[in-house]
Design brief:
The complex is a heterodimer of chains A (117) and B (112). Chain A is an all-beta fold and 117 residues long. Chain A has no helices and eleven strands. In chain A, the strands form two sheets. In chain A, strands 2, 4, 5, 6, 9, 10 and 11 form a seven-stranded mixed β-sheet that branches. Chain A has a four-stranded antiparallel β-sheet with strand order 1-3-8-7, with no helix packed on it. The termini of chain A are far apart. With 112 residues, chain B is mainly beta. Chain B has no helices and eleven strands. In chain B, the strands form three sheets. In chain B, strands 2, 5, 6, 9, 10 and 11 form a six-stranded mixed β-sheet that branches. Chain B has a three-stranded antiparallel β-sheet with strand order 3-8-7, with no helix packed on it. In chain B, strands 1-4 form a two-stranded antiparallel ribbon. Classes of the chains: A mainly beta (117), B mainly beta (112). At the A-B interface, strand 4, strand 5 and strand 10 of A face strand 5, strand 6, strand 9 and strand 10 of B.
């Protein structure tokens, strides 16, 4: 694949439903990130994966949000019992692992636009 | 905690005029600073990073640790520079992955 792939590109759902968002990183990228872009909040970090482990989940806004990564590749972000304030564009990014002296640039997908009615 | 501030939501310049998009940061450790750009209907992409010290599409940015700034500059704006620009910071020295903290973005509009 040429870049980070996210699906679906758009999702409209009713309040209270669960949603799953998918991210396919660039092949070989060990690090994977989820961000959220919403009006008034800008781009916010949600969670970071190194391989299948998530050393930093500090950005997840509530316990309704969870994410997993399998095979060191695909990741899914799950939002349970969605609320209207969850409406946003959810962005995924991937990168190679950095070093203590330099971080690797993150490559972003097109995002999933989530709308909660 | 780290913070990135972009004071201008919108910057409008004429073609051929100089451009400066401001970015200030606060972070107690060693930061790495980036500029990301999002053109209309395209994904967010890296424009440049301070460690590379390179010029991309005529843009440069110098990290000023004394002023905690990383302003993006271009001497002569082109119409194709119209886009949303985000300044971002991630901590250095932690190896592996480092989350990005973004500013709120500046919409650059280059007018003919």
């Amino acid at each position: 694949g040429a870049g980070v792939s996210q699906s679906p590109s758009n999702k409209v759902t009713e309040k209270g439903k669960d949603v799953e968002l998918r991210c396919d990183p660039i092949s070989g990228h060990t690090a994977l990130y989820w961000y959220r872009q919403s009006l008034g909040q800008g781009l916010e970090f949600l969670i970071y994966f190194q391989g299948n482990s998530a050393p930093d989940k500090s950005g997840l806004p509530s316990d309704r949000f969870s994410a997993e990564r399998t095979g060191g590749s695909v990741s899914t972000l799950t939002i349970q019992r969605t609320q209207q304030e969850d409406s946003a564009v959810y962005l995924c990014a991937s990168s190679f692992s950095g070093t203590p002296y330099s971080n690797q640039p993150q490559h972003f997908g097109d995002g999933t636009r989530l709308s909660i009615l | 905690a780290q913070r990135v501030t972009q004071p201008e939501k919108l910057l409008s310049v004429f073609k051929g005029a100089p451009v400066e998009l401001k970015c200030n940061y606060s972070y107690s450790g060693s930061p790495e600073l980036f500029w990301y750009v999002q053109y209309s209907r395209q994904r967010l992409q890296l424009l440049l990073r301070h460690i590379s010290r390179e010029s991309i599409k005529g843009f440069t940015a110098d990290l000023n640790k004394g002023e905690t700034s990383f302003h993006l500059k271009k001497p002569f704006a082109q119409e194709e520079d119209s886009a949303m620009y985000y300044c971002a910071l991630s901590p250095l020295g932690r190896g592996g992955g480092n989350k990005l903290t973004f500013g709120t973005g500046t919409q650059l509009k280059v007018e003919l």
